């Protein structure tokens, strides 16, 4: 069973678009997303292009700010502050990674928490930990949970979820979200002993480590649901490049009950959740009930 992230994302985007139509028609508010890209990293350019295009398709206005690789920290911070103060901008996304001379943490801390549609600001991270209702939740972890529910149903209660990876962007917030879903949560990482045996206990296995095809059938309990967050480019100029996940898809399919493909799994959900967060942010900033944006419409 292959979990179709593209189809799930398309369904979520229909709901987001409907919320945008209400916001623009009834409330005269057009949700707007500012996307900031510093430098010329090819992967980041592709991600930003996709985010901007899909925002447009959902009826969200997007404003793209492309800055050269030698942009100073001060210039970037000044742009972020300008966007913070601009009442017609509801969401701000600074594409990561930033060039080495810029302090990412300082940039994230400067984004107004209520416009931080990535959910990376300390107030949103802390809000997620505390279960605050208005915290903006990081997009990839949110998309992962939606995909798990798509496969397993609305309740994940009591299931053993193993998260491989402990990044601030995916692993840590994902573990917190799964705890909110009443899963039993284990976080595994590069220093975990006998990581394969731990993963074999998982009813749902999430892998977000950035190592091409690390996980194979020996890591998977028969019938488990596998959510692969990795996007790795392998191959060579001569052979041609291809994208693979952190899971060896072919090997894993012999054991898993259901698995997300790469591409076409988590990736589309990340963008769909970003658009949803932008609309949620626009609602919150204008005192409009967040019920306008459905919780999950994946099934
Ligand atoms: N780089 C890789 N993933 C992300 C993401 O979700 N948000 C931002 N801002 N940068 C990223």
Automatic annotation (TrEMBL):
User: Subunit structure, per the record?
Assistant: Homodimer.
Q: Which Gene3D superfamilies match?
A: Leucine Dehydrogenase, chain A, domain 1, NAD(P)-binding Rossmann-like Domain
Matching PROSITE patterns, A to Z?
THF_DHG_CYH_2
Q: What is this protein called?
A: Bifunctional protein FolD
State the GO CC annotations: cytosol
Summary of the function given for this chain in its UniProt record: Catalyzes the oxidation of 5,10-methylenetetrahydrofolate to 5,10-methenyltetrahydrofolate and then the hydrolysis of 5,10-methenyltetrahydrofolate to 10-formyltetrahydrofolate.
Which EC number(s) does the record attach to this protein? 1.5.1.5, 3.5.4.9
NCBIfam families assigned to the protein according to its UniProt record, in alphabetical order: PRK14188.1
Instruction: Name one molecular function that GO assigns to this entry.
Output: methylenetetrahydrofolate dehydrogenase (NADP+) activity
User: What's one Pfam family here?
Assistant: THF_DHG_CYH_C
Domain (Tetrahydrofolate dehydrogenase/cyclohydrolase NAD(P)-binding): give its ranges.
138-285
Q: Which family does it belong to?
A: Belongs to the tetrahydrofolate dehydrogenase/cyclohydrolase family.
Which residues belong to the signal peptide in this entry? none
Instruction: Answer yes or no on keyword Transcription regulation.
Output: no
Q: Tell me which residues make up the Tetrahydrofolate dehydrogenase/cyclohydrolase catalytic domain.
A: 3-118
What pathway or pathways are given for this protein in its record? One-carbon metabolism; tetrahydrofolate interconversion
């Amino acid at each position: 069973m292959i979990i179709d992230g593209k189809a799930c994302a398309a369904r979520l985007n229909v709901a987001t678009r409907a919320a945008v139509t209400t916001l623009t028609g009834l409330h005269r508010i057009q949700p707007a997303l500012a996307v900031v890209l510093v430098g010329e990293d090819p992967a980041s350019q592709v991600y930003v292009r996709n985010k901007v295009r899909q925002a447009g398709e959902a009826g969200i206005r997007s404003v793209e700010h492309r800055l050269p690789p030698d942009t100073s920290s001060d210039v970037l911070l000044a742009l972020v502050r300008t966007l913070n103060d601009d009442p017609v901008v509801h969401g701000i996304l600074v594409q990561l990674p930033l060039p080495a001379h810029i302090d990412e943490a300082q940039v994230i801390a400067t984004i107004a928490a209520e416009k931080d549609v990535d959910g990376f600001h300390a107030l949103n991270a802390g809000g997620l930990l505390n279960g605050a209702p208005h915290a903006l939740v990081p997009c990839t972890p949110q998309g992962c949970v939606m995909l798990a529910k798509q496969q397993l149903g609305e309740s994940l209660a009591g299931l053993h979820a193993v998260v491989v990876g402990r990044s601030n962007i995916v692993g840590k917030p994902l573990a917190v979200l799964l705890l909110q879903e009443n899963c039993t949560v284990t976080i595994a990482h590069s220093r975990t002993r006998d990581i394969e045996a731990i993963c074999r206990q998982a009813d749902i296995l999430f892998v977000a480590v950035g190592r091409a095809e690390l996980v194979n059938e020996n890591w998977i309990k028969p019938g488990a649901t596998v959510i692969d967050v990795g996007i790795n480019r392998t191959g060579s100029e001569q052979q041609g490049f291809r994208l693979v996940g952190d899971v060896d898809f072919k090997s894993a399919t012999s054991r898993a009950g259901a698995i997300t493909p790469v591409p076409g799994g988590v990736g589309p959900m990340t963008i769909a959740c970003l658009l949803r967060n932008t609309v949620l942010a626009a609602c919150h900033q204008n005192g409009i009930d967040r019920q306008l944006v459905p919780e999950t419409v994946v099934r």
